[in-house]
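Lecture notes, part 5. Sequence design as translation. It can be helpful to think of inverse folding as translation between two languages: the language of shapes and the language of residues. The source text, in structure tokens, appears below.
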């Protein structure tokens, strides 16, 4: 009888007790993994590199490259295990140590329909890009060693716990927080950390009195295009399957990016008289970051409104941070990623509704939830992520500062970090 039952289970996938490898799912996530790494190297590196002055371009590229290397090893040693394994009695807050050094993960070990090694690698690329985003807040003034130490500690102290809360079965996952691809885990954490870092390190010399224009907009626009393409892997890959959820996530991602771009340059034209390449690229990033948490739960109509909202609100937040708060968040990480993440996480609770006509999405996290319930959970996730990230980031910066200066000297800053820290030039002409 037991053999008969086993045979029936094998012939009935819906009743199968064990995970089964799906080659099409695996092929898609292999591709998505490459796309997400492509977002950091070279996409984000070129995007940021073009935005700084020419004496600091190599330092920015170097920071992105070094973060990719260091975070990869941290993720191997303990990051993935703490984020995604079972933490036992502490599982609401943090995972355990069962997968340290990817222990127990072999060629045939599965996570759903995927090789578990692939799941770990895919999630590694998210862990890489998140601290790399923070680089934009302190460009042109932070020491390389301090930056690297802070990034490693920050991944362990901020990214890993929040990743577990949301995607690893932690307390926010239990509540039903909607964060498909990283509104809280990636964008709010990076944006808030960027704001704190900008405040702790202080303004660049001569800012805001001296204009600090991008030195190579061609490089920036090229990097922005790479980010746009790579984001299909970021959001579409987060479905963890080659299915309709992935294709819809990609569709709404594209729509939001386009809407964010056009909303931003429209406001630029109204306020400043001319649209700019910087504006259309930044609006695109705002649209992408804002749709990220909602991308698996909303439809095309909702994505259009989310993208338009991103372009408008993030545009004005740049002005608030720079002109009213007088904070030198050099490359606008907080107003674009932080505010975009907040906005997208909240709007996911709105446009997931199935009762909005052409703007409807695919329903709320729990059968008993209405829109207000889902928005309440989304707001709780935003507040918890915001506060935890701000406090821990501040403490980590102060901790690193006890062992090494965070900021270069005034002379090194004037000389440029390329020569001062690396003895190299980006351009020898």
């Amino acid at each position: 009888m037991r053999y008969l039952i086993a045979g029936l289970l094998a012939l009935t996938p819906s009743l199968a007790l064990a995970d089964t490898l799906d080659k099409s799912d695996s092929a898609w996530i292999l591709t998505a993994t490459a796309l997400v790494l492509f977002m950091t190297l070279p996409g984000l590196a070129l995007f940021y590199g073009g935005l700084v002055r020419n004496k600091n371009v190599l330092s920015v590229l170097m920071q992105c490259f070094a973060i990719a290397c260091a975070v990869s090893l941290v993720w191997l040693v303990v990051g993935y295990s703490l984020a995604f394994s079972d933490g036992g009695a502490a599982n609401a807050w943090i995972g355990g140590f069962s997968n340290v050094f990817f222990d127990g993960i072999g060629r045939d070990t599965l996570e759903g329909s995927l090789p578990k090694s692939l799941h770990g690698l895919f999630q590694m690329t998210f862990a890489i890009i998140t601290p790399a985003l923070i680089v934009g807040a302190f460009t042109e003034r932070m020491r390389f060693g301090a930056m690297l130490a802070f990034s490693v500690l920050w991944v362990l102290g901020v990214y890993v716990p929040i990743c577990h809360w949301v995607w690893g079965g932690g307390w926010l996952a239990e509540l039903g927080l909607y964060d498909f691809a990283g509104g809280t885990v990636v964008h709010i954490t990076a944006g808030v950390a960027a704001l704190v870092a900008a405040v702790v390190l202080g303004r660049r010399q001569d800012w805001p009195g001296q204009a600090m224009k991008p030195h190579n907009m061609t490089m920036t626009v090229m990097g922005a295009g790479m980010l746009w393409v790579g984001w299909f892997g970021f959001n579409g890959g987060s479905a963890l399957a080659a299915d309709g959820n992935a294709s819809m996530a990609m569709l709404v991602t594209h729509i939001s990016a386009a809407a964010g771009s056009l909303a931003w340059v429209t406001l630029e034209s109204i306020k400043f008289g001319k649209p700019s390449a910087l504006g259309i690229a930044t609006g695109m990033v705002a649209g992408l970051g804002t749709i990220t948490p909602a991308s698996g739960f909303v439809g095309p109509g909702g994505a259009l409104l989310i993208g338009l909202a991103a372009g408008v609100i993030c545009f004005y937040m740049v002005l608030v941070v720079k002109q009213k708060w007088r904070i030198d968040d050099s490359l606008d990480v907080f107003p674009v990623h932080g505010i975009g993440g907040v906005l997208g996480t909240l709007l996911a609770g709105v446009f997931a509704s199935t009762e909005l006509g052409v703007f409807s999405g695919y329903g709320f996290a729990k059968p008993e939830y209405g829109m207000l319930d889902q928005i309440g959970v989304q707001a709780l996730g935003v507040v918890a992520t915001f506060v935890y990230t701000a406090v821990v980031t501040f403490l980590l910066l102060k901790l690193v500062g006890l062992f090494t200066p965070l900021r270069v000297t005034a002379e090194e800053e004037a000389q440029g970090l390329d020569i001062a820290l690396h003895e190299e030039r980006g351009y020898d002409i």
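The translated text above is only one of many valid answers, since several sequences can fold into similar shapes. The two ends are 80 Å apart (CA to CA).
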